[in-house]
Amino acid sequence: MPDLVVIITAKLNYWVYIVLMMVGLYAMIAKNNLVKKVVGMNILQTAIILFFISIGTKHNATIPIIQHAHGLETHAVQAVNYANPLPHVLMLTAIVVAVATLGVALALIIRLHRQYHTLEEDEILAQLEED
Amino acid sequence: MMWVIEMIVLIMVVITAIGAITVKDLLGAAILFGAYSFMLCLLWAIMGAVDVAFTEASVGAGISTVLFVAAVFRTSRRTRD
């Protein structure tokens, strides 16, 4: 039993990443309301961002801004002292893409509500069957 | 000491994510999603990704919540699940 606790707490970020990803996927598939589906899609995207940021962290490392930058350029830069900034820049792009996707999805939802006067997927499908 | 804060924030992230998809009111879901984004912002500040943290605070917790609330006010708050 203590081994299991050690296994879970040592990589807690990755376990939480899997849980969040499954929560988002469940909301996208099983929820009937369109806004709930969009919330699930956003949770899925932020779970993937959490995975990438977890890759870049190191123990006892500081934020990726070089110390002794001004006047002390002869100092050697020890890369082990800084968190890896490459996943951070990639995920900055992912956040902006996520908010653009969210805007388009909500605009489509408003248009659907104007036409069908409901946000439930099964009611929209039933109205489509009638036509 | 830092790992205790990180663990608390991770548990809060999971709680707010599950709350955002289970609450029976779309405005409540939007507010809980804003809380979820802000918890992620705290998590990334703890993990040393400060640029991602303030982008998430402005774009994720700010603009996304405003877009959700605006969409809910233009449509309906009612939901069955």
How would you summarize what this structure contains?
Chain A has 131 residues and is mainly α. Chain A has five helices and no strands.
What would you note in describing this structure?
- The complex is a heterodimer of chains A (131) and B (81).
- Chain A has 131 residues and is mainly α.
- Chain A has one domain: Helix Hairpins (Orthogonal Bundle).
- Chain A starts with a helix and ends with a helix.
- Chain B has one domain.
- Chain B contains three helices and no strands.
Biggest sheet statistics of chain B: none
Give the class of chain B from helix and strand content and strand pairing. Answer: mainly alpha
Helix content of chain A: over 70%
Helix content of chain B: over 70%
Instruction: Give the termini separation of chain A.
Output: 59 Å
User: Could you give the count of β-strands of chain A?
Assistant: 0
List the helices and strands and how they pair.
The complex is a heterodimer of chains A (131) and B (81).
Chain A: H1 2-10, H2 12-30, H3 34-56, H4 86-116, H5 121-130
Helix pairs in contact in A: 2-3, 3-4
Chain B: H1 2-22, H2 26-46, H3 50-74
Helix pairs in contact in B: 1-2, 2-3
